[in-house]
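Support request from a user on the community tier.

User writes: "When I paste my structure tokens into the form, the page sometimes reloads and wipes my input. The last time it worked, I copied everything first. Here is what I submitted, just in case something in the input itself triggers the reload:"
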């Protein structure tokens, strides 16, 4: 056992000064915490000042839309839907809002929006293209492959014609409603398939009609109506029709019904309203 008298003077001084050491340690901790708090406060103040500067600085106010990658016929519509953003702070403005606004234009398939500092926004779009002409309820419009009515005027160009005898309403998005979507999809599939399947037959198509029987291909010469109904098993149905037509030689105004599996029905044309 160590004799207390054998302890060194340095050890005894350290023991006697232990309260002072504790006070110094506490002071060091306090200083460190104060410095950390001061740093946080300064960081917050600098961040607030930076935010205020960005929000009030006129340098980054939106002043111009660059529409170089927007077709000329769509530029007025794009500028119209984006006009509320003029003067907004370009650094803080939500570009996804602009993209959604442009994407709501019926003729726009997709849109991309990006900042061009200090005060411009660049807009590029992929437009929908006319696929056919849709005649319905006394009006005629161009329509895209995905069933969006594109124009409010008589469409120009040599487009294949789809006529609808079924009534329907079109909303602000100009998308065909569900009541006619399946019939339009079948008609569009026929238009894409027929040129490859039988080019001569396609050359004689006057229009495709959508009605209660489904999809009907109306020929100019001979004046046949070919009732497909839908777009299922088109190749097999066409082969069956060709075999029957070659054997029976139907008259110039015959109606050829292909809606029944493995069966071709040839009738006199029904007495129906001209569409």
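"...and here is what came back when it finally went through:"
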């Amino acid at each position: 056992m160590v004799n207390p008298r054998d302890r060194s003077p340095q050890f005894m001084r350290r023991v006697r000064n232990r309260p002072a050491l504790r006070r110094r340690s506490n002071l060091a901790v306090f200083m460190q915490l104060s410095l950390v708090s001061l740093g946080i406060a300064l960081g917050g103040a600098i961040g607030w000042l930076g935010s205020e500067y960005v929000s009030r600085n006129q340098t980054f106010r939106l002043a111009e839309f660059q529409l170089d990658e927007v077709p000329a016929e769509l530029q007025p519509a794009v500028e119209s839907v984006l006009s509320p953003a003029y003067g907004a702070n370009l650094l803080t403005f939500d570009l996804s809002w602009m993209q959604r606004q442009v994407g709501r234009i019926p003729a726009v398939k997709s849109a991309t929006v990006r900042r061009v500092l200090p005060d411009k926004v660049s807009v590029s779009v992929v437009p929908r293209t006319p696929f056919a002409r849709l005649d319905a309820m006394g009006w005629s419009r161009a329509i895209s492959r995905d069933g969006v009515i594109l124009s409010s005027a008589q469409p120009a160009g040599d487009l294949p014609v789809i006529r609808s005898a079924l009534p329907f309403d079109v909303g602000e998005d100009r998308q065909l409603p569900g009541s006619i979507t399946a019939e339009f999809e079948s008609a569009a599939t026929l238009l894409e398939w027929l040129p490859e399947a039988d080019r001569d037959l396609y050359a004689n198509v006057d229009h495709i009609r959508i009605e209660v029987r489904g999809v009907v291909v109306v020929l100019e010469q001979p004046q046949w109506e070919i009732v497909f109904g839908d777009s299922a098993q088109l190749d097999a149905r066409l082969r069956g029709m060709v075999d029957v037509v070659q054997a029976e030689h139907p008259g110039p105004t015959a109606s050829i019904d292909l809606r029944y599996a493995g069966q071709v029905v040839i009738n006199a044309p029904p007495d129906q309203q001209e569409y």
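Agent notes: The reload is a front-end session timeout and is unrelated to the input. Helices lie at 9-16, 18-56, 75-82, 95-103, 178-197, 199-203, 234-248. Residues 74 and 89 are 25 Å apart (CA to CA). Escalated to web team.
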